[in-house]
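Could you help me review a protein record that somebody else here produced? Do not assume that whoever made the record got everything right. The record follows directly below this note.
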Amino acid sequence: MCLRSLLPALALLLFSACCWADVETADDLVEDLSVSELLERANSNLIRSEGEPILVEGDIAIGSEDERNADPCTSQGCLWGKYTDGMVYVPYYIASHFSDREKAIIVRGLESFSSFSCIRFRPSRSSDRDWLSIESQNGCYSFVGRRGGKQVVSLARQGCLYHGTVQHELLHALGFNHEQTRSDRDNHIRVLLQNVQSGMEHNFRKIATLNQGTPYDYNSVMQYHKYAFSKNNQPTMLPIPDPNVSFGNAKEMSRIDIQRLTKLYKC
């Protein structure tokens, strides 16, 4: 075979290798981001369509504006029920539009809870009245706590399929809010509203959370990073009393995240 006939194949091979290298490099860079950075990146500039839930605090879905100031649902019966064997079984369905690789990431996040708590995510059955429907919708989001019936957890195929983001959204579904909205937030975080994007101030509202005697956790997978919703690349949150304390860098659930989960569900 002459060299001229080999040139197109060689060019295609070199082009493919180059492209795969670019993809791997991009994936490596994204993997270095914290969960809060991944969520903000995935949900930035999304345009909500009619029929989609309203999002507050970046990734918490609500049914209407009236729910913004509601008391924490965990004090009103939105926990998932415990069975006689002491386990909390949460039915789920994973939409067919995910690839096998994407499903594996989701399942790994689901199964991680069984290694440190009494939470057991299991495939849904036709007899289940309440279940999580894990779908690739418009960004990453979840409702807080058990809502009843089909409950969408959105993990968009572009930007949301990472172990930590799966854990983050599942914690919302189990009844947890963001760390920076804790009732005692002002003792640990100073919010700099002058640096927050116009119209995004509500993302920093406090909630009458049930803190269960656990300390504020700068390393929580539910804590957003210091530049979240910034309009000028200046911090929107600073730790107090020491502004140099690192926070919002978690890539998976922390020890205290696990502790408060097991306390809430009495595992």
Q: What stands out?
A: Residues 3-31 form the longest helix (29 residues). Residues 1-26, 64-71 have pLDDT under 50 and may be disordered. The two ends are 69 Å apart (CA to CA). The helical segments are 3-31, 35-43, 100-112, 163-174, 255-264.
